[in-house]
Amino acid sequence: MDVWSSLMDGFATALTPMNLLFAVIGVLLGTAVGVLPGLGPAMTVALLLPVTAALEPTSAFIMFAGIYYGGMFGGSTTSILLNTPGESSSVVTAIEGNKMAKAGRAAQALATAAIGSFIAGTIGTALLAVFAPIVVQFAVSLGAPSYFAIMVLALLAVTAVLGSSRLRGFASLALGLAIGLVGIDSVTGQRRLTFGQPLLVDGLDIVVVAVAIFAVGEALWVAAHLRRTPLHVIPVGRPWMGKKDWGRSWKPWLRGTAFGFPFGALPAGGAEIPTFLSYVTEKRLTKHPEEFGKGAIEGVAGPEAANNAAAAGTMTPLLALGLPTNATAAVMLAAFTSYGIQPGPQLFSSEGPLVWALIASLFIGNFLLLLINLPLAPVWAKLLQLPRPYLYAGILFFATLGAYSVNLQAFDLVILLVLGALGFMMRRFGLPVLPLILGVILGPRIEGQLRKTLQLSAGDPAGLFSEPIAIVVYIIVALILVWPFIFKLIRRNRPVAATAVPGNSGATVPREAGGVSHGSHRADGTADGDGGSDG
Q: Are 123 and 310 in contact (CB under 8 A)?
């Protein structure tokens, strides 16, 4: 069955009245949560995992897809109106978007964000439909050594690029791998890290872990830093764009899409890098350089397109290889696991109708986002005035209810509180959350592939290098690990420039070329001026 006929079957499934209703619910929930500062699609999907346990898998994932796309869009609203990005990928949008809003052009900024998101998301989803089966064909040919190497690359790459400290990233990953070890060893039957507690024999439920780390940890963190000063929301009229705005936006939309999809599909891509590259590109190519820094519409159109194209790209490794590249994809992988579905090369053959209905729902969700969000922009702006104590009290209530509903055991509430406190401490000390979640989910799978590889080679470690793909991947892993040291060595060997000291006739002092000024450091170990959290 070719891609076109499979996609048409997916549309037939996704457009049934019930599934269409779940798509609308997902888009509305995702946008609402994305608009609220401090929340995001990962937390929303995690909170809804227990709620959707009784749903048919296709309906649940159609709703999750709507939440994902809606959350990516909702973050732009907060960036534009409050200069407070709801997602790390929306940071660049805030640079020009908030300046436009303060200049009385909030409507135009929101419109170019919405239309750019629709165009980029549609193109990105089309590329997903074309390239995902190709990636699957490649993945089917891989053996256990290559698959193990690729999963190691995904873990290390995501861990190495997050945050300002690689050490913190690897510490978070170690915590996740340790949590993933809890339970019975599938090969020897030996108990691991159960501390004599029979209820830990089956391991920690991934739903409880995700809800604790994302929802409870975030709620505790925000409660500890809750400011009682009211938020000043810029008023929004009906979003619209004039002919001149269209003329200045359509090229950035396309260029942003070209940046976003490839980076989203990479194991360590994400949306942060392509949004920044899109902004830099538009700043260099614009015919209105004087407007950048004061509210240039190109600086909103390009990054928002890159953001949503990257969201579509993220689904490619998730569905074809079972490798998530951001927090929301990691929680969706947990959702697949909770339904007993294993994403990867066999997914398209074993769960073909579900996969193509999910891809079709991304097209539908994109259209619904444009249809719903343009007229509802003033409503979302009013949602920003919701009191934070009420909001996070509700999150804690639903998180507790959801965690208990998984197994109907009070012990899960203890695990929820303990891991929620861990999530709070991770945010306090600047540890990124994503490596921990990836470690919990991928750790057991990596262990399984490692053991399979060693069994095939009769315990010889050389079996890890028995396939050409594995060797290439290990070379990339080595480069990722040693590059920071090489970069430091290159900087150390740069020539020293002389800088004149004002008021000291001709006196000079040595200064490292390309050096940067070092600001003070906060208690969490991050330098002043660092933007965004690692979470």
A: no
Bin 119: left if φ > 0, else alpha if -120 < ψ < 50, else beta: alpha
For residue 527, the cross-strand partners are: 521
Q: Which helix (H) or strand (E) holds 96?
A: helix 91-102
Q: What is the Cα–Cα distance from 506 to 516, expressed in whole angstroms?
A: 23
Does this model's pTM top 0.90? no
Yes or no: say if 47 and 196 are a contact pair by the CB < 8 Å rule: no
The angle, 0 to 180 degrees and rounded to 10, between the axes of the packed helices 57-82 and 352-383 is 30
pLDDT digits 0-9 by tens, 98-108: 888 888 888 88
- The per-residue b/e assignment along 323-355, b for 16 or more CB within 10 angstroms, e otherwise, is bbbbbbbbbbbbbbbbbebebbbebbeebeebb
Q: For 167-196, write each residue's pLDDT tens digit.
A: 888 888 899 889 988 888 877 778 888 888
Three-state secondary-structure class, residue 454: helix
Angle at which helix 272-285 crosses helix 298-321, to 10 degrees, equals: 150
State the CB neighbour count (10 A cutoff) for residue 81: 27
> Would you say 124 and 257 are in contact if contact means Cβ atoms under 8 Å apart?
yes
- Per-domain boundaries in the chain: 3-487
